[in-house]
Write a structure and sequence with these properties.
By secondary structure, the protein is of the alpha/beta class. The chain is 39% helix and 27% strand.
C-alpha cells in the first residue's frame, strides 16, 4: 500500500482516475469501483449500496476518487476515464445549464441524482479535470479492473443481505456470538498465508476494507505452518477492529473457512479432539480466534473463481513478504 503521508508536496500533480459502477438488477443492489494512478503509486476504492441505480454508482465512483485526491494531493490535473455516457455528458454538457437553472432541467423538473451531481460539481471545481469515454468491456485493463471492483463490491453486499434474509437476520457463522445489528459497520477481510524455506518461515497478510477505507496488516514467524498463519492472520485482523462490526472474512483456504464455520464447534464438543480422537492441530490459535471473533458478527466465505475479492492478491503479497521476513 502506498505511503499516504507527504504526498501533497507536488504542485498540480497529473493523475489518472478510472471509474465504474453498476447494479443488478437496476435499480437494486449496486457497487462502484475506482482506480487512481499517480507516478508509481496506485489507490483502489470501492463501495456499495443496497438500493440504488447504475447512474448513481457511476457518479459515486467519480466523486469518491476526486474527493480522495483533494485530501491527499490538493488540486490535481485529473484525466478521468469512464464508460458511462450519462456521467461524461452530464458533467461536460448538461451541468452548467442545470446550475444556471437552479438544478432544474429544461422542462423545469428537478435534476435526478441532484445530491451526487452537486458533490461532483464542487469536486470538479477543485481540480483541473479532463473527461474521457471508454467503451465498456472492450478489454481496457484498468477499465476492466474498475468493473471488477464494482462487481465485487455489489456481490459482497448481496451475499451479506442474502445470508441475513435466508436466516431471518442471523446467518450461520460458525465461531462468533455477536448479534446481527444493522447499525454496525460492514467490514470485509481478505486473509492469505505463506510458508517458505527450510526453517518453515511463515507469514500472513490481511486486508481490511470498509467502504472506501482500507488497512493492510501482516506478520510472520519461524517454525510454523501455513495453516497456523491463516488462523493467526484472521485473529489479528479481527483484533484490529476498534468496535463491534458485521464482518465478512474471505479466504481461498478451506481449512480456515470450514474450520471456523463448522469444524470448531465439533472440536469443542469433543474436548478439542478430532473425530478420530487425535488432538486438534493449532488448538491455541483456534482458541485465540474464538476470542477475537466474540465481539463481532462474522460470516466466513470461501473465495474462488469469479467471486475472488480484488483485495486477495494484495493479502497474498503481504503474506509472501512477511514469510520472507519483510513484514509490513
Amino acid at each position: 500500500m502506498p505511503d499516504l503521508q507527504n504526498l501533497s508536496n507536488s504542485i498540480s500533480p497529473r493523475v489518472e482516475l478510472y471509474t465504474d459502477g453498476g447494479c443488478d438488477p437496476n435499480p437494486g443492489p449496486g457497487g462502484w469501483g475506482a482506480i487512481i494512478r499517480w507516478r508509481d503509486r496506485e489507490w483502489t476504492l470501492a463501495g456499495n449500496d443496497l438500493e440504488t441505480t447504475n447512474n448513481r454508482m457511476e457518479l459515486h465512483a467519480a466523486a469518491a476518487g476526486l474527493a480522495l485526491l483533494e485530501g491527499l494531493l490538493g488540486r490535481c490535473q485529473v484525466n478521468i476515464y469512464t464508460d458511462s455516457q450519462y456521467l461524461r455528458r452530464g458533467i461536460t454538457t448538461w451541468i452548467d445549464k442545470w446550475v444556471s437553472q437552479g438544478w432544474r432541467t429544461s422542462d423545469k423538473s428537478p435534476v435526478k441524482n441532484q445530491d451526487l451531481w452537486r458533490v461532483l460539481y464542487r469536486l470538479t471545481q477543485a481540480h483541473d479535470v479532463t473527461w474521457h469515454w471508454l467503451k465498456g468491456h472492450a478489454g481496457h485493463p484498468l477499465n476492466e479492473r474498475a468493473d471488477r471492483l464494482a462487481t465485487e463490491a455489489r456481490r459482497a453486499l448481496t451475499r451479506l443481505h442474502s445470508s441475513y434474509s435466508e436466516s431471518s437476520g442471523h446467518p450461520s457463522t460458525g465461531i462468533g456470538t455477536g448479534d446481527a445489528d444493522d447499525d454496525r459497520p460492514i467490514v470485509e477481510i481478505c486473509v492469505k498465508a505463506s510458508c517458505q524455506g527450510a526453517e518453515k518461515r511463515g507469514g500472513w497478510g490481511a486486508v481490511l476494507r470498509t467502504g472506501e477505507h482500507t488497512r493492510a496488516l501482516s506478520g510472520g514467524e519461524s517454525d510454523t505452518t501455513a495453516n497456523a498463519m491463516l488462523i493467526q492472520g484472521a485473529a489479528e485482523a479481527l483484533r484490529a477492529l476498534t468496535r463491534p462490526c458485521r464482518v465478512l472474512v474471505y479466504s481461498d483456504a478451506k481449512y480456515l473457512i470450514e474450520g471456523a464455520s463448522s469444524w470448531v464447534k465439533k472440536w469443542q464438543n469433543r474436548g478439542w479432539r478430532t473425530k478420530t480422537g487425535q488432538p486438534v492441530a493449532n488448538r491455541d490459535a483456534w482458541q485465540a480466534l474464538l476470542k477475537a471473533v466474540r465481539p463481532h458478527h462474522v460470516t466466513w466465505l470461501l473465495a474462488h473463481g469469479d467471486d475472488m475479492p480484488a483485495d486477495m492478491d494484495w493479502a497474498s503479497e503481504l503474506a509472501a513478504r512477511a514469510a520472507q521476513g519483510n513484514s509490513g
